[in-house]
Structures are given as structure tokens and as C-alpha cells.
Amino acid sequence: MWRGVEGSDDSAWLERGQVFSALTKLGTANELLLPVDQIKLSLMERMLEWAVSDNREASAATLPQHTENAVRLLHMVQDFLQAEGLVNPALWTEKVLEETVTLMDSLMVWYSAGTQWFQLSQVGLRLLLGFMAQEDPEVSALATAKLNGVLQTKEVSSQDEACYLLGKVEGILRRSIQEQTDDTYSFLVPLLRTLLSKVHRLLYMELHLPQLPDTNGSPSFFEDFQLYCNSPEWRVYLDKYIIPYMKQYEIETFSQGHETMALYWKESYEAFMVSLHKRERERGESKIRFQEQFVEPFSRRSRQENLRYNSMLKQQHSQYSATLRQWKAARRGLVCERGPWAERQQDEMHWRVSSAENFSRMRLKLVRNYNFDSHREASALRDNLGVHHQRVNPESLLLEAVKQVKVSDLEDDILELPEDDPAAANNQAEAEEAGQKEKLVLWEDCELVTVVDVVPGRLELTTQHIYFYDNSQDKEKEEGVGHDFKWPLSQIREVHLRRFNLRRSALEIFLIDQTNYFLNFKKEVRNKVYSRMLLLRSLSVYGTRSPQELLKASGLTQKWVNREISNFDYLMQLNTIAGRTYNNLAQYPVFPWILADYTSEELDLSDPRVFRDLSKPVAVLNERNAKAVREKYESFEDPTGTIDRFHYGTHYSNAAGVMHYLIRVEPFTSLHIQLQSGRFDCADRQFQSIPATWQTLMDNPNDVKELIPEFFYFPEFLENQNGFDLGRLQISKERVNHVILPKWAKSPEDFIYKHRKALESEYVSAHLHEWIDLIFGYKQRGPAAEEALNVFYYCTYEGAVDLDAITDEKERKAVEGMISNFGQTPCQLLKEPHPVRLLQEEVEKRKAQLDSCPLSLFEHLSDLKSFFVEGISNNVPMVKAVVPKNQSHSFITHGSPDTMVTVSQNCLVGTHGWLPYNKNISNYFTFIKDPTVSNTKTQRFLSGPFAPSVEVTTGLFVVSHDGKLLFSGGHWDNSLRVTSLVKGKTVGQHIRHMDIVTCLSTDHCGIHLISGSKDTTCMVWQVLQQGGAPVGLCPKPVQVLYGHTDEVVSVSISTELDMAVSGSRDGTVIIHTVRRGQYMRCLRPPCESSLPLSILHLAVSWEGHLLVHTCLEGKATLKDKNALHLYSVNGKHLCSEPLKEQVTDMCVSGEYVVLGSEQGYLSIRDLYSLSLCAEPIAMRVPVRCVSVTKEQSHILVGLQDGKLIIVAVGKPAEMRSGQITRKLWGSSRRQTQISSGENLYNTQHDHN
Length: 1248
Known about the structure:
- There is one protein chain.
- By secondary structure, the chain is an alpha+beta fold.
- The strands form 10 sheets. The chain has a 7-stranded antiparallel sheet, with helices on one face. Strands 11, 12, 13, 14 and 15 form a 5-stranded antiparallel sheet that branches.
- WD repeats lie at residues 1041-1082.
- Keywords: Endoplasmic reticulum, Repeat, WD repeat.
- It is found in: Endoplasmic reticulum.
- Residues 545-837 form the BEACH domain.
């Protein structure tokens, strides 16, 4: 502090002063070991010592600096003692006195001339007088002796100074006399004598103090003055002359010094605070730098390591789960009934509903349930009648919470998309580049909502794929697979905005193969994900509109009115647009009760009385119920004014209702038990009879349940296939098992078939719009709903409650659960009456007037005619003739012909022009022959010879859906080849089978191809897409399917239903899953003969019906040699039909089967009964291939002699002359020149 600071200027002393300021601040803020004053005093003592030492040892050069420091120090000591010493006398120590006196002596303060030294001498006098006034006799004596010595040698030149000295000394003297401290008085008397002698004349004492004892050598002065100082003369003199001047002198002499020191301390304190703040700032900056350079990198690295470690653990767990799943799957494959280690006693199979949907959004399929639970405990708990469990009504508990968050007005769920997002556009452009590296676009936490559970996870969107990672703890639900998924963006067909728990926070993603996912996000995140997905995928922006606008833009209503789509498909599409989904029981699709007759022996769909009145809600079909409901509505009044009037306290669609209907199939059985607190509901409340359920609706105005889609396509839910113990009825004690069907239904399949027919009937078509008005339309809300007795409890309407307004998490969850179970009304799609459907006759009239609308041949089976085309493959059998169904045309080529592909037995390939709807000519169609097939120089043949043992048939060839690729099997090198029909050359050759490829088939969506081989295996291949068009096959098959013991001769595949079907010469049909390659079941078509049975042809309908053609090998006669067998999608044998001819090709189109035979017949049969729909058409020569065009307007038949027969409706409208010209491809030609199919083919109907 002294020697550490160089110099004696103001800045040096400012730095020293900061030490004292720091001590002061520390003392006020903290409790120190020593008082702050003591610390400061010790510091000053050391400083005085160092100052004395420095002055003593100083050279001539450094002396001025040391002198300056000493002077400043003396001023500081004097100020400190005068300020702090008044409060704390202990500060006036002997050591300070000695060091101060020594320092002043060394500076020769008393004898130096000049103003500075005079002021310093005054400071010295003041210090000495201060020490003299202390109670410590030693300190007082030392100070007195020193002052006495100074006065003896120093001149007192001014009266003011004389008065000051006299006043101060006399004050000390008088105090000692009063306190009777004789010691003090004794050593003060010599000083007083010296002082009086010095100032006697100066103060005119002779004049004013005549009685003053003589100071010059009087032996009794000690005693005399002691008496005199109490005399009036002395007191008057002091009070009148000395004291006033003394005070005046103090003010004038020392006040300036006090102010200077006060300013010094202030500046020191301020400098200290500045430096303190600077240090704190530097410390803060240092801390920040430390954070940036050390802590944050460490934390980042630590987080990365933690993430890496957790990721590694997750990967290990996933790997373990995947390995376990593969082992289980491998074991099941090995020990299943068709496996190499097949167990003699196969485990009983149990099933659950699959999430696979067909293109009508039917969930038809059951899959193996490897975690089956018979729920015996739930049955036992239900039957434990001794324990009474009161059911708490959650609605009453939470009613107040719901009332508080009621919403008066509902805004449309419209998403405003940015008009242009450069970043997204760039991402899209980058993604389209060939070989583009995949980049992450965004990721968000979300929930995957399934019918069973809500799975937490993370969605990642990249430039090429969409990923979902399952973050749930329990990932063993589906054999360790979890719910992770990955799909190319190109597979996304639609994305819809959805609500979940009444919040606008969810998306539903629909893929090309009918897979769909329901994802729930944080409310503010959903739109961001949706916008990015639209921009990356370039999807239609219809989804950004409200459901009302979406329906309008889709054109579905007009299609339904024009009978272009079925009633079922229209209702399903309305449900989808209105936010109904299979993935959420609270928003399950809703379908109407359509029949009122469940007791007749026969169902007459031509009788209007068998149908329900679709213009009324189901609860008020009975007029008595309608009256009760109306009276209840009119009398209802809520005192709080919160609850609006309502007709029904329950709802026509809710989670409990769905589980009520589907209780016999998993996972709904488990969900029902979960809802009922771990037990089955009592048997009398179960869904046990369709007639009884309808009767309950008629009798009870509080039961308003409508139906679910499964009533129109899913017979399995009517059977207790899993053998659950559903209890006994209380009165009859009858056990509840399968659902009791109406009398007119012979089986669950028969009920579904007839119920579906009823849905598509003329009566329902004419009145369905009335029910749509109630559920989705203008009668859903407002005055029209009141008039129609169609008002439900306000909480069921979308947006009626703002759940985000409930701050308590538990309360909000409880309200969500209540509303979820209570039911939710669909989005209102129409605010005006729904248009009426056209009658069938009106539609046919319209079609007859339109040029672009070909007639469906299945609707005019009695009016079919056959036309032939020659010159394609003269006298060489035609083994393939097909018009691919997804041919795209640009705007420029719109209206130009489609491509028809033909393949002859000698591998000659033709690509012809085809227009099916020209009504200006007699045969309605236009065929333009490929000129290359006639010219030997330009003919195109498939490369590579076929194996000698292979018969070239239609099953060896598949044409891609866009007509650009031809896939072929049967080659000598066991390869599956891909030929470009555009380039006319082989573009792919895949050798994976161990023997010759015998059959091929593709799925409806063009995603997968399946091949069968003599090596007894089948392989599922993924079709490579580029820009939405197929360009080849993946080099490695997706699945290799085993199980047959002989050559595979027929295959079929349905990606949407996740089914790969194969038939073999071993007489079995085996069904595997496409996505995982799991063995599902083996079908053995019935056969009474001991001869070997082959499965020569297979076909899968849109609804999953499996049609099998079997043939007895080695049988000489045709009698009972061939048969057709129909199976349900779940492997149930429905019917069989023996055939009189040898089938050569077979295809299924809608509800019809088209067969071609060796005997030269083309026959059309009903898919469900397998009976003939019309007399077979005789083609006179063996049929080699059959196919139906995409409009169901024509059947293409390839014959043994190379002719192409085109079967069409032969009832022309006003037939015009063949000379009429028509503009086609920008040229004008005579119609007769374009159409090669003018010639009518003479056929004979088989009447046998």
C-alpha cells in the first residue's frame, strides 16, 4: 500500500485512499474479526513508520517525493483522528503519537518557513492538543511535554493562535481539576506557565488579569493557579475574549482542511466503486469467456455424449428387440404348419383386426394375435355379484369445469400457407435431383394416435422421407417392433388437418397403399409441419381449406349424384373429410341404420317398408319417442344459462358405442375391458342381437347409437372367434356368444352381403341425402336441427369447449377423457340441403348423350357383342392383351389414345392405340394397330429365349400401370426381366430365384410385384419409382416367401391389404404379409379326389375375397376336373363351383369374375355366388388371355389363332355413318381408317 504504489501525486494517493474505502465498505456489509477502525489505525501506524524510514534514508533526488507523501500522510492522520477519534478515543495511541512526532521532527515542521509548513505546524499543534486531551496519562504526558518543548522554541505571533492554544490548554487543565486528576494537572502546569509567558503581552493580560499569579519563578504557582482558574476574573476573561477567538480560529484554520479531506475521501470512494464495478464487469466478462471457452463446450460435449450414450442404449434395445422379433418370426416360420420343422400339434390361432385398409377404406383383415389374452379374469370379475361397484358419473363431476370454458363462436379451421417459401422450394428442387443426399428439414415431438394407444415419439421430415421414432417405454406390443415407421415422401397421397381432444393440433397422413397415420402435435407446431410437408411433396392444397371447402373442391357430391361412386364410398369419404378416423375411437366413422325389418324370413329390397326413415334421427323413428323428446327439449332450462337446450344427452357415435359393437374382436375387447375398469360389462348390456338392438332403439329415446362401417363389410365382428366368455343373460340364462342375426341372414357373410346390397339399393340412394343432412349437413345445427329433433349436448359439437383455458393439468385431462367418451359431432360439411341422387334411368340417359362415357358391360350383360382385330400375331397365340390403368397424358396429348399392350407366344410385343368411348361408330371403340407388328423388319421381340420346359402363358407377363414397362418370367437363366416398351429393350435382369420364374403379378397401386418359381418360393419386389413413374425393380427382393413343397404356378398380391398369395402344384394356397413376410395361413381347397390338385389361377378382389381356380392333374375327362373356390379375406371358405371347361385365364373386376377356357368360352360369373351371370360366349378357338379395361367397358380376349377379341356393349345409340371425320392427334382421318375393329365376331352362346 505504501511502497507498492509509486509516486506522491493525486492518483497515487487516490489509489491509497481506495484501500480505506474498501475497508469501510467491507465493515458495513460484513462482520470482521477486528473493528474497521482498528484495522485502519494499524494501517496508519505502519504508514507512519514507513514514512519516517523513507525520510531518514532518502537521497536528495527522492527527498521531495517522500516529503510530499509525509505531508499528505499527516493530513490524513489528523483527519482520521479528528473524525473517528471523537467517537473512539482508543484510536489516539501512544505509537501514533510517537511516529507522528518523529515524522514532524524529521520534517522540521516547527521551524520551516512558508505557508505549507505553517499549515502543517498548525496541524501538528492540533494533533498534540488532541493527544493531550486523552485520558491515557502516558499519552497525555508525552504530548504535553512535546508541546511544551515546541512552545519554548516557537514564536506565537498572532492573537488568534494564542487564544486557540490558551483556550485548548485551559480546557484540558480545568477538566483535570474538576476530575481531580492531580497527575495530569501537575504535568500541564509547566506547559501553562510557558504558554502564559509567551502570550502575556500579546493578549493584554496585564490589563485584563491583574490578579494572575506570577509565572516567573514563583514557587507557589502550582497552587496559586489552581485557585485562580476558578476566579470570576479568569472565567470572564476566557468566556469573553479567549473562547470566541479560539472557535473562530478553529473554523478558519481547519475547516478548509476538513473539506479537502472530505473531497479526497469522496473521490477515493468513487474511484473504489468504479474500480469495483470494473472488476466485477471484468469478472463477469471473464466468467462469460470461461463459459464460452470451457463450460459451454464441455456441456455441449457432455450433452452430445449423453445423447450418444442414450442413442446407443436405444439402438441396442432396438437391435435386441429387432433380433428378438426376427428370432420369433424365424421360429414361427420354421414350426408353422408349412414350415420345415412343423409341429404336429399346432397352437390354436387367435386373431385381431389389422390396420390395413382397402381403397374403400374398409378394415377387412384379421392378423395373428401373438399376445392373445382370453380375459378370464375380466369375466370372473363381472360374475362376482357379491361386490357392488358404484359407477361414478364423470360428467357431473366435471360439468363446472366444462361450463367455464364454453366457446360461443367457432372459427373455421383454415390454414394460411405462405405464398412462397424459398427454402422449401429449394429443398424440393434439391430432393428431385438424382442422387441427392438426404437432408433433415425439420423434426418435432408428437404423438402417434392409434385405436389402442397414444404413442409419444418424434417426427422427422427430410427432403426424401418421413420418419417416426417411437419414444414409448413399452415397445414390445407388436413383437418388439414398436411403432417406428419410414416412408418416402412420394408415397404420401393426402394430408388432412385433424382435431384431437377438440384441439386443432393433429394431422392424418394417407399413403398410396392406403396406410394412414394420425399424428398429434403441440397446437402451434401442427401448421408448420403441415406447410413444410405440402411444399416438399407438392400436394394438393385442398387440405388447407376448411372441410366444407374441401368437400366442394373434391367433386365427390357430384360424383355421387351421378352414381359414379357407391353409397358406401361416399359415406366413407364424407366421414374422412369431416375428420372421422379409424385411429381415434372418439371420432370413429359413423354410418346409418338403413333397415327397419330384422324379423322377416326374406329381405325384399324392393319394398320401401323394410327401410328406416332416413330423414329422422334414429331415436325418434318411433312417433311416441319423438313426442317425449320434443317435450323434454321444450321444458329444459339451465339456471346458469350455460347449457343450451338439447334433445339427447347421449350421442350417436362415441368410443363406448364403437367398443360395444366390436367387443368380440381384439383390440376392442381389451379396450372395452379397460373402459369397464378391468371387467366385461354385464351380458344384458352387451351387443348380442341385431334385431334386439334395433328394438331397443325403437323403445328407448335415450339410445341414439348409429352404426359403424363394419356393419357393411366385416362379418368377423359378428362372431366370437376368440371364444371370450361374455356371460349369461339374467332372465333366460342363455350364454352370449355369436351375435344373433336377422332371420333373413343365413350367416354373418350373408348378413354383410345383404346389408351392403340394402345400402346400395334404390330406396337408400333416393333418401341417403336426408341422413347426410342430419349428420354432416344443414340439419346438424341451428333452427333446422331443432325442427328435426337433432340437437345434442353442446359439448359434443366441434370447438364448443376451449380446453386450453383449463389451466389445471389433471382437470383438463379429465375433461378431455369425458368429452372423448361422450362423443363428438362431425364437422359440418354442408349448410344447405344436400342434392338428391339421380335415378339409374336418368344416369343411363345422360351417358347415352355423352361421347366420353362408355357403358359398363357388367350392367348390360344381355347386350354384349364381340369384335375382332386381326393382323397382330397371325396364327400365333396371343398370350397377353391389356390396357394399363394409370396412363398419364399431358395437356397437349389430352384425349389421345391410351396404350394397349399385346404379347404373342413367340414374344412379339405390340403397343397399340386404344380409345374406348367413341360413339360415332358402331362398336364405340377405336383401335389403332401398332404398325411394327406387321413388318418383319420393325417387329419387337422380348430378348432372351424362354426355358424349353416352360409353356408361355399370360401369367408370365405383367405390364406396369403406366404401360411403359413389361416384366417377364420363364427365362432360361431363372431371371425376372424388365423390358422398356418405349425403348424396346431390356432395362433390368434380376436373377434371385434358384429355378425358372413361373408366374408374376402386380398390386393395384403399382408398388410391388410378386414372382413365383419352380424353386417353390415366391419373392416380393419393390417397383422403383422416379417422378411417380415406374422405372424398374429394386435389385434385391423385399421378401422371400417359403412354404410350398412344389412348383408355384399362380400368385397374386394386394399391398393395401398386406397380402401376398401364392398357389402351387402341391394343392395349397399360402398367404403371407407383404410388409414383414410373415406366414399367415394355408388354404387347402376342398377336393374329393385322390389325384394331385394344382392351384392354376388366383385373384384377389378389392374387398380381399380370394378366388382360387383348382385343377386335378392327370384326370382324363373334364368332369369335376376344374373348380372355382371363393374364400374371404380372412381365409374362410365361402363357396365352390365346379367348372365344365379348362380355365386358361381368369380375372376379377368389381363383383364379377371373367374366365377364358381351353374350350373357347368366355364366361362371366358373380364373384360372391360364382354362378354364371350370362350365357358363356363361344370364341370357337381356345382363349389364351382375358382382361377388363379400367372403365369396365370392354373385355380383351386373346385367342389361340392370334386374334384379339374385344367384347363390349353392342347396343349403339343413334349410329352414324362411318364416313364422319373426327380430329385426333391434330389430324383429320376417316373413322374407318383408324378403327380396325369394325368387324363383328360371330360367337355362339353355349346353351348347354
